Amino acid sequence: MFRQRSSSKILFAIFLLAFVVRSFYACLGLWWAGDSPAYLTIAKNIAFHHSFSVTTGIPTASRPPLYPSLIAAFWWSDSAPITEVVLLQIVCGAMTVVLVYLIAKDRFSHRVALLAALGAALAPMTAHFTAVILTEPVFTFLVVLGFFLWGRNHGVAAGLAFGLAALTRTIMIPFLGCLVLLAFLSPWRHNRRLYLLISVSAMLVVSLWIVRNAVVFRQFILVQSTGYGVNLFAGTIETQMYGDDVWTKVMEQLGSNNDGSKDESDNDRKLMVRAVNRIETDPPKYLRARLKQYPRLFLDSGDYLLGSSNVTFDEALHGRHALVLIIKISFMLGNIAVFVLAIYGIFLERGRLVSLSHIILFPVFLSLIHLPMWIESRYSLPIMPLVLILAARGIEGLWSSTSLAMNLPRLLSLTPRSFGEEWKQ
User: What's the average model confidence in pLDDT over 187-206?
Assistant: First the structure.
């Protein structure tokens, strides 16, 4: 009984801390992203015209359905329900931190669980995007919920969570395909039933929207009609690593390659073909583009804290903007440290890779699938809860190694009997 009360208090404290941190970011003001107006437009059409469309009366499949549908559920007046949506995202973010603690506690020590939860609660980019009308907070919550249920062998429930996540961002669909393949590899074969149960349950949820698209558009659309070709094409465009003009340059080239396709799917397919042609025509240029873009997945520059996303390193250096340079360098070094610690954590647990699949596989998958495609720093947000668990394990490993090294001379001076007693303590 005492342990249950103590555990409940810890979970409440973690939730409260995460809730307060996210509320603070929300109070600083709403930050708009390029995709925010599209989600609000679709949500308004759902609420007032019962139509999933950008242009009223013209159905679309340009976005996955769950997020705009959630916004529409709160749209009870003429004004957009921004406060309600942000509050929902704050709750989702706080619940994600609680799930981080529970996932870590299921496989690691209490110390690792607390470190991971503290990191997830205070992570600046994760907290910042709570106050943005984008899918990240809801998607991350659903993904982490799915991995928590997977870790406790609740296959159907995990599949339902992943299915809802796939209806929020379609990046989950190829991961589900990989999960099916994983079921037939020898190290994971004994969990085949669980993996197949997760995948089938998730695809049953996703199939509802696939059927809707087939009925409305008379063609097979895997949830979203656009995005695959766009992201591959954008991945071929050489830009600077950071700056406001990065996406502007991409949009200019995307617009110049719009030749009046008959529908969204057709345009996306044409962009896919053009992307492949560009890669084949000039591989070195494509490689340069990827080398400039890909690090953004792992390096958060902290620009949003300064309102300085248009200031590059060179501009900050030549303009002697010391605070901008300090923020950028600190954030990037912090990101590098977290990922290095996570890799070290995986190394320490290399003998338990199968039992830790629900923690390790998704970060690896997301890192690999974005190799050829367009990258933004926020794309890493869904893997950060799991990465922080692994990083916490890495910190624990370093702490243990340091403590052992400091105590080694004293341990060597002990007799065999006293050494055994010391070890037990």
Answer: 93
Considering the domain boundaries, does residue 339 fall inside one? yes
The pLDDT mean for the chain works out to 86
Q: Which residues contact 199 (CB under 8 A, 6 or more apart)?
A: 159, 176, 177, 179, 180, 183
Give a yes or no: residue 257 inside a domain: no
| Residues 5-38: b if buried by 16+ CB within 10 A, e if exposed | eeeeebbeebbebbbebbbebbeeeebebeebeb
Average pLDDT over residues 240-250: 59
Residues 297 and 387: their CA atoms lie apart, in Å, by: 13
Average pLDDT over residues 13-41: 88
Whole-angstrom Cα distance, residue 10 to residue 98? 9
Indicate whether 243 pLDDT > 70.
Answer: no
Quick one: average pLDDT of 267-294?
Answer: 89
> Is residue 266 situated within a structural domain?
no
Residues whose CB is less than 8 angstroms from the CB of residue 90 and which lie 6 or more positions away in sequence, other chains included: 19, 22, 23, 26, 130, 137
Q: Give the per-residue pLDDT at 293.
A: 87
Residue numbers of the domain that contains 6 = 2-224+298-404
Q: Count the alpha carbons within 13 Å of 225 in the hemisphere toward its beta carbon.
A: 20
Q: Is residue 254 in a domain?
A: no
C-alpha neighbours within 13 Å on the C-beta side of residue 247:
10
d(CA 42, CA 39): 5
